[in-house]
């Protein structure tokens, strides 16, 4: 039995890195280790686990930037209390240098462009400077840097000059029950629940609408192009919240794009995916792309930027789904049209890759991460 300190912003099942953190904590506790979670938010199921201890760091007024130094301070306090025998795993720059570091998102690899409120723009600017400083300090002294893709590993080495000997890649797993292949009955039920019109194809976008990173602007422009053709019989469901959502809804109304529906934040992503025929993910930066991973597991073809981490796992037979330039709406419109022309054939093409992804559980990922930290 070991004692662990795991430091991250959130341990929940509601987002990519948060879901991976949740899986890691759950695995360690279930195998019998004492697990101390230093975080802003921890899901109720983890809090109930006998071997989990939660050390909450405030996030004043819900502001991530204000909460980040508090998270780092609480992490340092917990390390002093538990002593040098505790194993420590931190997300990015969330703790003192010298810890094993798990990189889900590298701040140095992408500079957000925020167009919404002044507070959001200020937070993005100051937040980036803070996180870059912390990220640089922690990565420089980390004995091992665990990355969620080869793309992330390459970014770490390029931006911080880290030798390859200190970098390892561990791919995410998946909830093999929730994201099993969707049956015809599940798809029909999901489409009814989301009021999808009969005879309509459905594309889904899953991602925050807080800045341009997820590429919704590219998708919106591509959708305008496609919608000028009266034969375009596809609806777009956009699942995600953020400061720019209201502006996008207004823009859709102005352009008469009734085929776009904004669902807001959804916790039932497995159902949203089951209702769709294709996922569209034209990201400018994505260290991995769990939403793409989960969509493929459910049997959907997923159009994604070639630079996203998940894209490095695509087999050659799915290469037509990869976007070379996520800012080119004409390319995305062409790929969407090509998908629609052969929509009935894509599920069979995706299935071998889906089986591969479904074969790796969250526990398998967590065991790999734990083994690397223990060896370091």
Walk me through what this model shows.
- With 376 residues, the protein is α/β, with parallel strands linked by helices.
- The protein has 2 domains: 3-173 and 361-375, Rossmann fold (3-Layer(aba) Sandwich); 184-358, Rossmann fold, CATH 3.40.50.2000.
- The chain is 42% helix and 16% strand.
- The chain is built from 13 helices and 15 strands.
- It has helices at 16-30, 44-47, 64-82, 118-141, 150-160, 184-193, 216-227, 245-254, 269-274, 290-297, 329-341, 346-358, 362-375; strands spanning 3-7, 10-11, 34-39, 41-42, 52-56, 87-91, 100-103, 145-147, 167-169, 201-206, 234-239, 260-264, 278-281, 302-305, 322-323.
- Strands 5-3-1-6-7-8-9 form a 7-stranded parallel sheet, with helices on both faces. Strands 12-11-10-13-14-15 form a 6-stranded parallel sheet, with helices on both faces.
- The longest helix is centred in the middle third of the chain and has 24 residues, at 118-141.
- It is globular, with a radius of gyration of 21 Å.
Layout of SSEs?
Blueprint: E1 3-7, E2 10-11, H1 16-30, E3 34-39, E4 41-42, H2 44-47, E5 52-56, H3 64-82, E6 87-91, E7 100-103, H4 118-141, E8 145-147, H5 150-160, E9 167-169, H6 184-193, E10 201-206, H7 216-227, E11 234-239, H8 245-254, E12 260-264, H9 269-274, E13 278-281, H10 290-297, E14 302-305, E15 322-323, H11 329-341, H12 346-358, H13 362-375
Parallel strand pairs: 1-3, 1-6, 2-4, 3-5, 6-7, 7-8, 8-9, 10-11, 10-13, 11-12, 13-14, 14-15
């Amino acid at each position: 039995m070991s004692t662990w300190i795991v430091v991250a912003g959130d341990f929940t099942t509601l987002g990519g890195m948060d879901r991976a953190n949740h899986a890691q904590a759950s695995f360690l506790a279930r195998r019998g280790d004492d697990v101390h979670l230093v975080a802003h938010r921890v899901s109720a199921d983890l809090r109930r686990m006998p071997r989990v201890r939660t050390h909450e760091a405030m996030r004043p007024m819900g502001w991530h930037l204000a909460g980040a130094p508090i998270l780092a301070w609480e992490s340092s306090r917990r390390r002093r209390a538990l002593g040098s025998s505790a194993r420590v795993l931190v997300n990015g720059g969330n703790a003192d240098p010298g810890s094993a570091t798990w990189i889900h998102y590298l701040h140095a690899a992408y500079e957000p462009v925020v167009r919404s409120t002044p507070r959001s723009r200020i937070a993005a600017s100051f937040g980036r400077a803070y996180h870059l400083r912390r990220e640089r300090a922690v990565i420089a002294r980390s004995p091992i840097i665990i990355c969620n893709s080869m793309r992330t590993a390459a970014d770490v080495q390029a931006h911080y000059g880290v030798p390859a000997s200190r970098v390892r890649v561990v791919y995410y797993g998946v909830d093999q029950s929730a994201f099993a292949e969707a049956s015809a009955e599940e798809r029909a039920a999901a489409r009814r629940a989301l009021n999808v019109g009969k005879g309509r194809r459905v594309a889904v976008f899953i991602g925050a609408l807080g800045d341009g990173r997820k590429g919704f602007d590219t998708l919106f422009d591509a959708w305008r192009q496609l919608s000028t053709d009266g034969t375009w019989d596809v609806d777009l469901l956009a699942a995600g919240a953020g400061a720019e959502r209201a502006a996008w809804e207004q823009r859709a109304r102005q352009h008469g794009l009734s085929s776009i529906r904004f669902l807001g934040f959804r916790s039932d992503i497995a159902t949203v995916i089951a209702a769709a025929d294709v996922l569209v993910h034209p990201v400018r930066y994505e260290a991995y792309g769990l939403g793409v991973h989960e969509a493929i597991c459910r049997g959907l073809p997923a159009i994604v930027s070639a630079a996203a981490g998940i894209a490095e796992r695509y087999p050659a037979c799915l290469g037509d789904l990869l976007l070379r330039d996520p800012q080119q709406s004409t390319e995305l419109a062409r790929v969407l049209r090509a998908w629609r022309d052969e929509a009935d054939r894509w599920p069979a093409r995706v299935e071998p890759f889906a089986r591969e992804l479904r074969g790796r559980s969250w526990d398998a990922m967590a065991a790999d991460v734990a083994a690397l930290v223990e060896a370091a």
